[in-house]
Design a protein that fits this description.
Length: 789
């Protein structure tokens, strides 16, 4: 059988007769990049099938990471090249044999016979066993225990080897996984997005990684108490997570460190994906991570850490369409539940979504379909469906298959699932039209069942990785250099001694390396200078602070770096594990500090001038820390306020005149209306008295002269009314003009005021003052130990 034909999983079964047709079931490993699920009730043969997938992968040169919650996957180590009873004998389950009324030797002979015949019936023999054993090494890791090869999950919380600070986003998932797992171990149930414990630890780790440091859990505990950060998001750290509560978190983590069983989590080879998957020569490995001895929280931690590390490793790889590595999990119950979000679920979901592009296949087995997040699973490209316990389980599977079912007849599938025998599976692939019914081939590995720690200890006795873990020396304190000391050099009496707080915002400015433990001496000085402004009759007081580092034999008062330090930047106690670079000066000599203080005073008197921007017209001075633009803006605002006050007075003055005018306009308008109304009435009366009367009289003579004269007088009255209206209209127009003029005057005056104040605002000059020596006080000269490495 050539490996190139695909994975040899078993033989096709005729659904009608239930017999093998003789046709082999071959599986294209590339299909595993879309991931697979093996599901079936207990005893249905899932683990057997998983072992077969793994044997085939290893034979094809594909490495595997195997998460083993129940302990059956250790069986991958039980391959016996000659299939003799002697080879089986040490590994038979003596208790089970006794129950069957057999001696261990008889059980071994039976097993050897079963395996020889079983393999033979599938066309497999010793040659295949030898090929499998030669293809890959199986290592059984026992995190948290030294029975097998322990895994150093927590000895160092260092970033993975391929870490690069400018791709920090790619590592956030891993940091999140690590922190979630760690908090789980410490018994703290923390939501990665909402819990402050999680947010703080993740920030601390991210920061440490970005700085290139490899913190231990102890370092992390120290940093929880004294975080090298002041803010988390927009909040002051102490508001977000008060010191008292941080102490409690530190205690919880400390209890973890102090527990005796914890030591095992910190020995052995590091959890480094490439070395789990390949030997130094590039030969594939099978890394079985045994979890059966762990508590739920510990399992979550181990799985989360392994898988999130796999995710980051994977992302640093180039894309691949063929299967590059296989991840198998023998029972996912509790890791991918439908709604909850246990720590390990996130990296599993990430793998389901992203691993395909990198050629990493995930194969998950479970007997509890009801406990699967079937929505996440429904994207899996391969389903091996075995015998199911309940109708509900079946319904759940059909539900999961529905979106990807395509042409598949679900009713038919339903019927077929109901008739599956032991070790029979329906192979459903999104790419194939019809699911194939098959029975698994005989496993090459001796399916002895779960091994316990003692047995693993026996099994791995010869494993060089375990031996290496055992003989590894305990970590030692770092060796001291020639110019270093572990004891802080004494400072003269009365001189304050501080240690830089890792969160001091100006640490880099003075050449410090946050979080380092190799300390170098520095001086911090604070002085107050008083400047007199004789012209204005005011005093300006300036606070001046600087840190002097490095310190030469001769104190140079001009070499200080001006930084704005405050009490929060200093700690009273040295960081743990600190060493001190021997200073060139003798700190215990009081004289050094008095000389330095005097030199500083002289220097400040000579060199310090205070330059203050000043606006005489507005009587304003620049403030400490105010930029030129800010001062100009402040002057402008003051000028505008002054202009507004002045304008208000002008407006008051104009207001009376405006009022009078408005009233007059009202009156004039009223007069115009009145006149117009009068004119109208007159005109109507004139009509009523008979337009064209004159003509009628002349022609008919029926009207009297009297009526004639009445008509004439009506007409003249109309004319008068007309004149009155025109007059009123003219007066109104005049008044409106007056109003316009007045408004123009007001606008002009306001503009003048504004221009005058704007000009005043712009009159900024620089006032220079020097402080006389008698007006300089040096308040403090302190020793500060700065971490430099
Ligand atoms: N491919 C195989 N070759 C030889 N024997 C097998 C194979 N598959 C299963 N068996 C036998 O059937 C038994 C039960 O199968 P298996 O352990 O794979 O079931 P399972 O579905 O994993 O059950 P559980 O859910 O309890 O873990 C095994 O102990 C083994 O004896
Ligand atoms: Mg099983």
């Amino acid at each position: 059988m050539a490996a190139g034909d695909g994975f040899y999983l078993g033989g096709v079964v005729d659904p009608a007769s239930g017999e093998r047709t003789g046709e082999e079931v071959r599986y294209d490993p590339a299909d595993l990049t879309t991931h697979g699920v093996i599901v079936g009730m207990t005893g249905s043969g899932k683990t057997g099938l998983g072992i077969i997938f793994l044997e085939e992968a290893l034979r094809a040169g594909i490495p595997a990471l195997i998460l083993d919650p129940k302990g059956d996957m250790t069986n991958l180590s039980l391959t016996f090249p000659d299939l003799t009873p002697e080879e089986f004998r040490p590994w038979v389950d003596e208790a089970a044999a006794a129950r069957d009324g057999k001696t261990p030797a008889e059980a071994a002979a039976d097993a050897a016979g079963a395996w020889s015949r079983g393999l033979e019936s599938w066309g497999l023999g010793k040659g295949d066993l030898a090929a499998l054993r030669a293809a890959a090494e199986v290592t059984i890791y026992t995190p948290g225990s030294s029975a097998g090869v322990p895994l150093d999950a927590l000895g160092s919380l260092a970033a993975p080897a391929e870490f690069s600070a400018d791709r920090i986003e790619d590592y956030r998932d891993e940091i999140e996984g690590l922190v979630t797992g760690l908090l789980g171990l410490a018994g703290i149930d923390a939501d990665p997005l909402a819990s402050r414990e999680h947010i703080l630890l993740a920030n601390l780790l991210e920061r440490a990684w970005a700085e290139g440091s490899a913190p231990t859990l102890e370092d992390l505990i120290v940093r929880v108490q004294q975080p090298p950060l002041r803010k988390l998001g927009v909040f002051e750290l102490d508001t977000f997570f008060p010191e008292k509560d941080r102490l409690e978190l530190a205690m919880r983590l400390n209890n973890l460190v102090a527990s005796p069983s914890f030591a095992a989590w910190r020995s052995g080879p590091p959890l480094d994906i490439p070395s789990l998957l390949w030997t130094a020569e590039g030969k594939p490995r099978a890394a079985v991570v045994y979890l059966a001895h762990l508590s739920d929280a510990e399992r979550q931690f181990a799985v989360t850490l392994a898988l999130s590390r796999l995710v980051t490793w994977m992302r640093s790889q180039s894309g691949s369409s063929s299967l590059r590595a296989l991840v198998y999990m023998d029972e996912v119950f509790g890791f991918v539940p439908p709604t909850e979000m246990p720590p390990a679920k996130k990296p599993i979901l990430t793998l389901l979504k992203q691993a395909r592009a990198f050629g990493v296949g995930l194969l998950l087995a479970t007997q509890n379909p009801m406990d699967l997040d079937y929505k996440a699973m429904s994207n899996a490209g391969t389903w091996c469906i075995g015998r199911l316990q309940t109708e509900r389980d079946k319904a759940r599977i059909l539900e999961a298959l529905q979106p990807a079912a395509g042409n598949v007849d679900l009713a038919e599938l339903d019927a077929r699932i109901s008739h599956l025998g032991k070790r029979q599976f329906l192979l459903h692939q999104t790419r194939a039209k019809q699911p194939a019914l098959f029975t698994t081939r005989w496993a090459m590995s001796y399916l002895r069942g779960p091994l316990v720690l003692d047995e693993i200890s026996r099994l791995t006795a010869a494993d060089p990785r375990r031996a290496a873990a055992r003989s590894r020396p305990a970590p030692q304190a770092p060796a001291l250099g020639e110019h270093e000391t572990a004891l802080a050099p004494q400072a003269a009496a009365g001189v304050p001694v501080y240690y830089l707080h890792p969160g001091a915002p100006w640490a880099e400015q003075v050449g410090a390396r946050r979080g380092g433990t190799r300390l170098a001496v520095a001086l911090a000085a604070r002085a107050h200078l008083t400047y007199k402004d004789a012209t204005a009759g005011v005093h300006h007081v300036e606070e001046w602070e600087a840190v002097f580092h490095p310190l030469g034999r001769q104190f140079d008062p001009a070499a200080g770096k001006a930084v704005d330090y405050d009490a929060r930047d200093f700690l009273e106690a040295a960081p743990s594990g600190a060493t001190y670079l021997l200073p060139e000066i003798d700190l215990s000599h009081k004289a050094f500090f008095t000389t330095a203080t005097r030199a500083l005073k002289d220097h400040l008197a000579r060199a310090r001038t205070l330059e203050v921007p000043r606006n005489r017209a507005l009587k304003l001075y620049g403030r400490v820390g105010e930029s030129a633009a800010e001062f100009a803006a402040r002057c402008d605002a003051a000028a505008q306020a002054a202009a507004d006050t002045e304008a208000a007075k002008i407006r008051d003055r104009f207001e009376g005149r405006l009022d009078t005018l408005r009233r007059q306009i009202e009156e004039a308008r009223f007069k115009v209306d009145e006149a117009a109304l009068d004119e109208d009435t007159r005109r109507q009366e004139e009509m009523a008295s008979g337009v064209g009367t004159l003509l009628g009289v002349l022609l008919g003579g029926r009207r009297s002269t009297r009526s004639l004269s009445t008509a004439a007088s009506k007409r003249s009255m109309t004319r008068k009314a007309q004149q009155r209206r025109t007059g009123a209209e003219a007066r109104l127009a005049g008044k409106l003009e007056d109003l316009e003029e007045l408004e123009d005057d007001l606008a002009e005056e306001l503009a003048e005021i504004d221009a005058a104040w704007a000009a005043k605002a712009a009159e900024i000059e620089t006032a220079r003052f020097t402080a006389s020596k008698s007006r300089i006080t040096v308040d403090e000269v302190a020793v500060v130990w700065l971490p430099v490495g």
